[in-house]
Design goal:
The complex is a heterodimer of chains A (283) and B (333). Chain A is an alpha/beta fold. Chain A contains 10 helices and 11 strands. In chain A, the strands form 2 sheets. In chain A, strands 6, 7, 8, 9, 10 and 11 form a 6-stranded mixed β-sheet that branches. In chain A, strand 4, helix 4 and strand 5 form a beta-alpha-beta unit. Chain A is globular, with a radius of gyration of 21 Å. Helices cover 74% and strands 0% of the residues of chain B. Chain A binds chain B through residues 58, 74, 169, 171-177, 203, 208-209, 211-214, 216-217, 219, 228, 231-235, 237-238, 240, 243-246, 251, and chain B through 29-31, 45-49, 52-53, 56-58, 111-114, 117-121, 175-177, 180-181, 184-185, 189, 191-194, 197, 303, 308-310.
Amino acid sequence: MKTTRRLVIALLLAAAATLTAGAQASLPARRIVSLVPAVTEMLFAIGAGPRVVGVSSFDTYPPEVASRARVGALVDPDLERILALRPDLVVVYVSQDELRAQLARAGIASFVYQHQGLADVPVAMRRLGQAIGLEPEADRAAREFEQRVARVRTAVAGRRRPATMLVFGRAPRSLRNIYASGGTGFLHDALDAAGGANVFADVPRESVQASIELILARAPEVIIELRTSELVGDGNAPSPWLQLASVPAVRQGRIHTLAGDYLVVPGPRLADAVEALARVLHP
Amino acid sequence: MSLRRRVWISVAGFGLLAMGAILIAPAIGSTPVSLARALDGAIPFADNVDAQIFFVARLPRTLAGALVGAALAAAGVVLQALLRNPLATPFTLGVSAGASLGAMLAIMAIGPFGIGGLSGVPLASFAGSLCAVGVVYGLARIRRRGLSTDVLLLAGVTMNAFFSALILFVQYFADFAQTFRAVRWLMGDLDVGSYQPILAALPLLAAAFAIFAWLPRSLNLLALGAEAATTRGIDVTRAQRLAFFSASVATGAAVSLGGPIGFIGIVVPHLVRLIVGADHRVVLPAATLFGAAFLVTCDVAARTIMAPMVLPVGVITALIGGPFFLWLLVKRA
């Protein structure tokens, strides 16, 4: 038992050492592959766009990514194609430890990333700048992000914060499978910065499956639906929300739809999302 | 005790259980609701949160649970008799896999479509279940006149595997949000959100139950085997066909309403048989009523155990149903 624990700790330490060593040895990275759309956007924002040679299959922004090689994504990274691009740094998600080990064996450094809160976006940008030797540029982009969010916070300070439900998933034409932001994560933080009070702030999770009873009980004053693509809507059917007549947002017609993938990618454009949410909450 | 008396006693007993569950369930939930206020007609409905929670959130859910539970339990009884296999479930013949494939395709590929207030997913899921039923039935008819239950069973099992492969194939091309919705659909969910999906499933379920009402005597004979049944003077093929289609329609409609909720179709029939014996004239109505009570109760548990989070009801039925069923097996042995 003791030996096993020691072995695990030793392995963890070794893994951590390889990671940091790898990241340092490759400085500055010239050929970068990013498997995380949010980090791809950060790379372009700090001026490392020309160095990006490969992106994930879900990358859509900035438009330049259209010309980059696609190398799979979170669950299906294509190691062969990654290696064929001869990268010196690969951005991986924290759960891709198998890929990380394979890259380490090939002598390629990884930059490990994890989605967290709003405040972690500039932190990740600065860390990225350090890893690829673009510290001043990363710091400038991070500061711009922080300033934009701070401007919104100042603008909405002192205003009444409406109880808001931020919906990011719902089955079309019905009130089934409604997923809303819980009390943690970048969506909750963005709503908070934009001057809204999340009705599920007390749920310590990133997402809440909001049953109809829960929505009626929490009685949001504003409902904001995020849609990543224009396709999935209710068509021309009447809004299913109208069934919940006692919900203040329904009675006052404060049900808004925001479309675009910038709302759900926690990269530099999260500042756009904060501004868009603030415009809806405090017109 | 005469048969008539046994039927009446079991229907009364299980009926009371089902009625009790359906009446009590809407009063329980994560939010405290005043029943007096909910039923107070003097307050306008749009202002009455208690009434909205009662009538918009909980009552459709309870009714959907009762219908789905009753349909799956009854379909389980019918298929166990038809296939002469105690391990048969409503999902054995590929109906739920076909329904799941239909639902996946609707979730993945197609934007907002639907008829009236119905979304595309239940429609596609019912269409998928019909496809599966058609293929399985066609296969069972090819080899000989009549319906071969062996072919039916093997074709069903194979179709399940084949549709599962197609589901994985379709899911591979989905993005994260679609995959999540698809996986969530597979766990079963009774938060139907309005009465429309229930009303849409009702005619199908009513037709299936009308046939079920006619079936029990034939099922008793079918359970003895096709030859024995023929010598007792029933049209075996006709009875098999009716049993197969009514059970399939009931399952397809139930799955399109609540998703593939597992374990009800096997636990409830066996439990009821342990209590009332094997005669289908007693088992079928008793299992129907007990299925309704069981799923409604499981849904109350799903809504309240981790409130305000709602657990998928399929997880609850499996968590309660699995161990309970094993305990029954051991106890009987």
